[in-house]
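Posted in: Protein Modeling Q&A

I'm a second-year student putting together a small comparison for a lab meeting, and my supervisor asked me to include a predicted structure for Probable periplasmic serine endoprotease DegP-like. I've never done this before, so apologies if this is the wrong subforum. The sequence is pasted below exactly as I got it from our records. If anyone can share the structure token output, I'd also love a short note on what stands out.
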Amino acid sequence: MTLCLLISASACARELPELTSLIEQNSPAVVKINTMERSRVNGGGLPPQYQQEIPDIFRHLLEPRRREQRPVASMGSGFIISKDGYVVTNNHVVDGADEVVVTLTDRREYEAKVIGTDQRSDLALLKIDAEDLPTVGWGDSDDLKVGEWVVAIGSPFGLDYSASAGIISAMGRSIPNESRENYVPFIQTDVAINPGNSGGPLFNMDGQVVGINSQIYTRSGGSIGLSFAIPSSLARDVVAQLREKGRVDRGRLGVGIQDVDRNLATAMGLGKPRGALVAQVEAGSPAAEAGIRVGDIITRFDGQKIVVFGDLPHIVGQTPPGREVSVELMREGERKKVRVKVGALEGAEEVQQTSSAPSPDVGGRLGLVTSEIPDTLKQRWGVDTGVLVKQVVPGKPGAKAGLRSGDIVAQLGFDEVENMEDYDKVVKELPGGELLPIRFFRAGQPTFRTIQIDE
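Accepted answer (user: helix_wrangler)
Welcome! Here is the predicted structure, written out as tokens:
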């Protein structure tokens, strides 16, 4: 306000961007997404082998209690990228949903099919049955600079098609997901983003989508000026893979890394802190085969600088598996170059193909497509037994229990599952209509939940 008193009002106005045209042109392609998830049936009780030990007077206390299923609704935003109805949003907006409804600005509603999801990038691709729809175009997030103006359009708190503006606060933010993986170099902005904005587009001043709003940092549940968007340079590749081949392939190096502080940089002859310090090398991994050692500091990967250690997983993950690249590193104060053939990241989420109804037999009684655990995954997570979940069929018991592709099932009911032979036998003998414990590993972390076969 003080600044505007010192100069003319017209000169002050020229310093601020004019946003009305951008918002008018792009709002029709921004959609509201409402989802519905059936809540799980609560229950309890002891297994039959233990019931005989309980006195009759107490048995009624341990009988299963059931509650009527209640639908759980949630909401988010998205945007249309093709005239024939492909819609991009966040994975967490549609994760676990039994019904997804897309609403356009003109109030038309369509039930959407989930073409594919990718938990690691928090992206999902939907399809609605419509033609000649309004669309938005992709921009290049690599061209963004800190201080540049951006605009978000979405449905915060369910308020239809709200716009907010701000600037780019930082680039390349590393924020691990719930599985402690880090494959997204987030764009940080001060744009007001609130619950309901998730999955909506972030526009540059040319009206191009340069990010997908994904997370907020808050202690109160509302925006406090820190929001994070998935960059379009990553999102375009993920969406293209989901649409083309039904999965997302990511590169893998097979190292554990940490940051380089000032003392380490001095000791290693770097001059200033930079790069990723290799703290662990997995046996048989691409890094091991290339001769990368514990104590090496990776400073470049495929020609791209590694400024902070979080840059490395971002770059490796976007490298196509099977590609041979050059890696520059510091070893005992000397610069070295090695060639690495990038591996494929195991346990990536398989896409839940719902564009056509799956066969009733897919996934068996639990709706889980499983396989033996690859040795590389056993080494990475320290898991020796179990079966790997490769696909989760929507609406089946496995999906209702919250299982995801990449999980490792180690126990069903009260039976341990060591391999596929055990799994097939146990699943066949599981009783229907009862809540049963299931133990699985997700990113190496054990978790117990319940599963019920409705038969």
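A couple of things worth pointing out for your meeting: The two ends are 69 Å apart (CA to CA). The longest helix spans residues 232-245.
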